[in-house]
Amino acid sequence: MEIIEHYYYTKDHEWVCMEEESAMVGITDYAQSSLGDITFVELPTVDTEVEQFEELASVESVKAASDIFSPLGGRIVDVNHNLDSDPGLINRSPYERGWIAKIVAADLDQLGNLMNAEEYQSFLEAEKEE
Amino acid sequence: MDTNLKRTPIYEEHLALKAKMVPFGGWDMPVQYDGILKEYDYARQGAAIFDICHMGEFLVTGDAVESGLDHLVTQKIIDMPVGTCRYGCMLNEHGGIMDDLIVFRKAQQEWFIVVNASTTEKDAAHFRAHLSAKAQFKDLSSQTGKIDIQGPLSRDVLKQMVPGIEKLEFYSFGMFRFLEEEVLISRTGYTGELGYEIYMPWSKAADFWKALLKDSRVKPAGLGARDVLRLEVGYSLYGHELNEKKTPLESSLTRFVNFDKDFIGKHALLAQQVGGIKEKVVGFTALDRRSPRAEQKLFSEDGSLIGVVTSGSFSPALTKGIGLGFVNTGYGEQGQTIFFGDEKSKNPAIVSSRIFYKKGSLKL
Fold first, then answer.
1. Which residues 3-62 in chain A show a CB within 8 A of chain B?
2. What CATH number matches the domain at B11-53+142-232, 1.10.8.100, 3.30.1360.120, 3.30.70.20, 3.20.20.140?
3. Pairing between β-strand A101-105 and β-strand B218-220 as defined by DSSP bridges
4. Per-residue pLDDT for A109 more than 60?
5. CB–CB of A107/A78 below 8 Å?
6. Which end of chain B is more exposed for a tag (fewer CB within 10 A), N or C?
């Protein structure tokens, strides 16, 4: 499973990439692989506020629907409308073209509640062993 | 990991193909290999094979009526030509559907019956209890393997390995030599495409699987793709549209019931015909990609609870969500707007024909 070095991760397999103006959010390679072919993404509304670890979006695969939780709290400033017509972007490019939303973080200390790449790698390995 | 799950004789091949395995009807089955949408395409455009060894097979020997078989099933069997098969149901005394099944007439007095995996034991007990002393009954499930090959290319692929199968007409079957074995091959399936179901000795099923995959046009497909394929053509799935609390009239399978003969559950169905049914299965199509899911609720335009989703999926052919569900009679006219979801989130859909995909190669 691909993991990006400078991203931060949640236990629910979301990622966040800190950019200059905002934080880009999506789901991990592991998450897209577990879900299978993604067929629909319900995007959040721009200019609304979200709390850390609260529901941000939902994604549907052929078989099931899953909630996506926000790795950081803040204001949603952009969403990836390419997913409306091509939700499979998340399967093909989970860490880049399949991003879901951009958030202006309310409190960067919340990054401390997330895992770095190395920690997420260990977390995945532990989950696999269960 | 549930260690009580049963394994088909093709289990090791699924692991070698890196399939994702899931429990289904007490069996550890492949849900997908390359991905559900890819496997869906193999069946709609090429040739896909499915491991269906988990399903149950019975052999009944005896006269159609005197054996008691005719009384056990809803479809007419006395007029079936040898070499044909017919779909129907087995009901309890209350008209509830104990299973849906296919009866094959192998000889004048020899009947091969294919039932669902999760219901095999229950069905066998019901057969044993209701067949007459003039019938012989054998449960062949543990010695019979089954592989389905489905898709517009399935005939071209299979006839190279099994000469003669190209003559099989829809819902007919024959005995053929394949890999030095005598196998039953029927032109039937669960996808809406041209296709065949192959019944072979349990112990040889993996050899047949590997032989079929040697043709590069053939790809493995899992239960995930199978469910999407069957739902797009409106086929019922036992435990979803069909169960012991519902009759064929409610599950919209009336055309597979022959009222000119006697069968277990007939009196209940006749009473229901007089009294009327309270709910029925309908198909519905979502307005966008958001898809209904089994057990979600169905609502009318004024927000009243009118039913429940029994099957739901994204439809690759329509690029929209599709579903089947029970709705109260009085609702469910084609073209009517209904809503699926829960009290918090209601998503619009249009009641439609349950045959969502009509371009299949079934009768090719």
1. 36-37, 39-40, 42, 60-62
2. 3.30.1360.120
3. unpaired
4. yes
5. no
6. N
